[in-house]
Amino acid sequence: MDHHTDHRDFLRALGARLAQIRRERGLTQEQLAELAGVDPQTIQRAENGRTALSLVRLRGIAKVLGVGLADLFGAEQASVPEAPWGKGELQALAAFRAIPADRRHSAVKVLKAMSEE
Question: CA 90 to CA 25: how far, in whole Å?
Answer without folding.
Answer: 8
